[in-house]
From TrEMBL:
<dbReference type="GO" id="GO:0003743">
    <property type="term" value="F:translation initiation factor activity"/>
</dbReference>
<protein>
    <recommendedName>
        <fullName>Translation initiation factor 1A</fullName>
    </recommendedName>
</protein>
<comment type="similarity">
    <text>Belongs to the eIF-1A family.</text>
</comment>
<dbReference type="InterPro" id="IPR001253">
    <property type="entry name" value="TIF_eIF-1A"/>
</dbReference>
<dbReference type="Pfam" id="PF01176">
    <property type="entry name" value="eIF-1a"/>
</dbReference>
<comment type="function">
    <text>Seems to be required for maximal rate of protein biosynthesis. Enhances ribosome dissociation into subunits and stabilizes the binding of the initiator Met-tRNA(I) to 40 S ribosomal subunits.</text>
</comment>
<keyword id="KW-0396">Initiation factor</keyword>
<dbReference type="InterPro" id="IPR018104">
    <property type="entry name" value="TIF_eIF-1A_CS"/>
</dbReference>
<dbReference type="InterPro" id="IPR006196">
    <property type="entry name" value="RNA-binding_domain_S1_IF1"/>
</dbReference>
<feature type="domain" description="S1-like">
    <location>
        <begin position="7"/>
        <end position="81"/>
    </location>
</feature>
<dbReference type="InterPro" id="IPR012340">
    <property type="entry name" value="NA-bd_OB-fold"/>
</dbReference>
<dbReference type="GO" id="GO:0003723">
    <property type="term" value="F:RNA binding"/>
</dbReference>
<keyword id="KW-0648">Protein biosynthesis</keyword>
Amino acid sequence: MSEDSSGRKNLRMPDDDQVFGVVTEHLGGNHVRVRCADGETRLGRIPGRMKYRTWISEDDVVILEPWDWQDEKGNIEWRYEEQDAEQLRREGHID
């Protein structure tokens, strides 16, 4: 990630089929409830490649990719660090 003189980092942004979300509840195992930027609340699944490397907790900002066949569920693709989440909030990407 590169940083310009104002301290702004170039952060990973969602692809066309992905949305920003905020984790609202940890449901146990590898499942979380996510309030997405498109107004939906979805069940998020933490994939095995992230499960033990990236701890996800309530109020974390994530990128979620909704499933094609079941829009109310999706996979967590990325979790932002706290300072990156603050930058996204300042720039108006999430509320």
